[in-house]
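Take a record:
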Amino acid sequence: MSQAADRPKATDEAKEDDADSRRRVFITYLLILIAFLTVQFGHGSNIGVAVSLPGDSKAMNLALGSWVMVGVCLGLPVTPWACRTFGAFRTCSVCVVIDLFVILLMLYPHKSMQQIYAVRFLVGFFEAPLLPYLQEWLAKFGKRSWNVWNTVLHAMVPVGENLGYLVAQELDAMGVSWQWAFFGQALTLGVAIILIAGYGGRRYLDISPNSSHTFVSSEDALMTAPLASSSSTNGDSRKDAEEAFEDERELIEDDPDAGHVVEYPVTEKWAVFWATNASLASQLGFLSGCKYVIRDYAIRHGFNVHTVIFSFSAIALLGPALGGAIAMSGRCIRPDHWTQHRRTLLFLTTVSTVAAVFSLGLLVAPFSLFWPLLLVCFIAAGGVYPAAQGIINIALTESRVIEASVYQVQCNNLLFAMPMPYVIGKSMDCLGVDTSFRCVIMIQVIAAMGFATSVVVSACTEERSTWNRLHGLEMSTRRGDEADEDLE
């Protein structure tokens, strides 16, 4: 009797512990958002400083953005090794603390341009492990709200960058030192780090794998079944696979939250991963390139400097936010479900094409329509980032989340983020502002073409997988017939 009476009490206590755990995870997530927003604020401030610096060479000024990416490119290859050797939590913790002290070096007065290059390089190097760690953290602690949490996390990138972009330029326009922007960043980041460490602790920050959260469909699983059934003449492996995924589907139906869990493919989808990855890099290249060239281009065509700063900052904040909200609402697509990856790729192709059409319109439309057209372009382009990020994060299966994030960031850095600031500056010095702006527009066209290629790649790989499945079933049948003949 006493044991029966204790069971409801134990159940209630377990529910209370679970509710408390979810609340602590959520608050930890909010604190992480503040810290991540602050980091992106620093990157935006760096761009704002680059476009505001006086001098005859735009290339040397805009190279500030390139040196940050050089640091990230050198830090990312070390990240997987450091995470395996010292643990992802310890690696990220140490790098964030060092990054805070490096940011404080920006406050040192009378620095030369070369010294600023060195500081921004160190900032990029020690911030390299941050995004891969956060993607793994979301996969573990935010798996039941991944769609929303991932959207909000990546929304901090344009929000933080554009706030920093705005603040740094306005400080310079008012005659105040732009170093105050980095002082505010360091202060906010320091407070956020203390709160995260004190409230979350190791329990809610350590991402050591201790549980599985992979749910895939029986259709994807059966694509690999012929490989198992081809080595068995009685078909037991195929039956086991069907029974296992039938049981899993029943578990999902019984658990109302299971439908929100991230779905991974059974095997790595490298072709789709790289096609989407390169296309996303082009898309980010367009959005980033506009920050470097838009000020000079708009001023050249008669806009006031304050009008340019506030108009572009508002568009760069509002556009991606609206586009990302539409993409991640769950009504159109589910980027965290591999079973819907083809629909996601079609969505990416559509919105990137719309963005390309409106970006080309910027070159021919009257300047009275310049800012409205740019807003529509940024709304369409804003839907690309979270949707493509979902495909990239899950395409290499659950065991490669950190590696997938490293590859994504590295691809973007090598193709566009690292060389682009200096190349745009050099183009503005040698070819003029108008030509540089046209080149940035063409990057959006390349992004649309890339996502269309991703759809084709996905269709081709799925067709090959279907052929392999049918071929495997045929081989299994033949071997079964041969076994029956041997027995006779």
In short: Residues 51 and 338 are 41 Å apart (CA to CA).
